[in-house]
Amino acid sequence: MLKRLLLVIPLALFATAALSQDNTGWVTQCQPDLCTLSRGLAEEGTGKQMATLLVAVPKASEDLRFGLALPLGLALAPGARVVYADKSVDIPFEVCFPDGCRAMMPFADADFAALAANAAIDVQFFPYSASAPVALTAPVDGLAEAVAAAKETLASQP
Question: I need a surface site. Which of 55, 91, 100, 128 has the fewest CB within 10 A?
Answer without folding.
Answer: 128
